[in-house]
Amino acid sequence: MLIAHLTDTHIGLDPGALAGRIDPAAALRRALAHVRGLAVTPDVLLLSGDLTESGQQADYRALRTLFDQELPGHRPRVLAIAGNHDLTPLARQCLADWMPAPAGAPAGLACVLAEQGGLHFIGLDTVVAHQPHGELGAAQLDWLARTLHALAGQPVVLFMHHPPLVTGIAAMDDCGLLEGRAELARLVAAHGGVQLIAAGHMHRPILGALGGAPVVVAPSTSHQLELDLRQNAPLAVRLEPPMIGLYRWTPQDGIACHFSHVQTFDGPFPI
Ligand SMILES: [Fe+2]
């Protein structure tokens, strides 16, 4: 099982807003071409939110068109969750096949449940309408507890927009997952089979852990944020080379997380 993880595609962001240096659609096109060029085709492609910059229907359509153009024919199964820049109901309406709705999920939330290659993917909806921060409320945690109980003994991947981590990037932690982290940790620890928690939101590659499971935050396909760990550091964009996450999993070997730079077409060379 190979999982590609792309996040924070921000389709619709006006390149002029960031000094004309960023074109999210072109960046996603390059990232998808990178996926297409991988020696091993991923089985699943996770999108962990901020699919669009401002939740416009035209941008969800443009996102799908980019996938259709860059990954035609046989391609990974796409699973998506919304982020704080999305309009969650519209995302689910436009991308219903990428966001399969589980029976019994809490009303008004866009949770996702899917099985692929022996792994159970659970997408959590951390979005608080019109707010940059995220939360996991009681209804969703209760649903997750029941879902994980039903999957006792089976391997699970959780994915969500806001990572359940305190990263030290203060301005982003202030709008991170502000409720539900401790409860999520307890559920993950109790299940014991969560192979990975994949998230976005931070626009940086970050690794951590929660409840005994690894947490991986993939960088944006478009623009990264400055790595500044001072307590009052202002947010700033940095145009580091984008990367995608590539996570290999087998029942025997467990999980191994790689990051692959986009646009590195000058190798590999035999040595
Ligand atoms: Fe984002």
TrEMBL record:
Belongs to the cyclic nucleotide phosphodiesterase class-III family. The lineage of its organism: Bacteria, Pseudomonadati, Pseudomonadota, Betaproteobacteria, Burkholderiales. It comes from Ottowia testudinis. One of its GO terms (molecular function) is hydrolase activity. It comes from the Bacteria. Residues 1-205 form the Calcineurin-like phosphoesterase domain. SUPFAM superfamilies: Metallo-dependent phosphatases. InterPro entries: Calcineurin-like_PHP, CNP_phosphodiesterase-III, Metallo-depent_PP-like. This is Metallophosphoesterase.
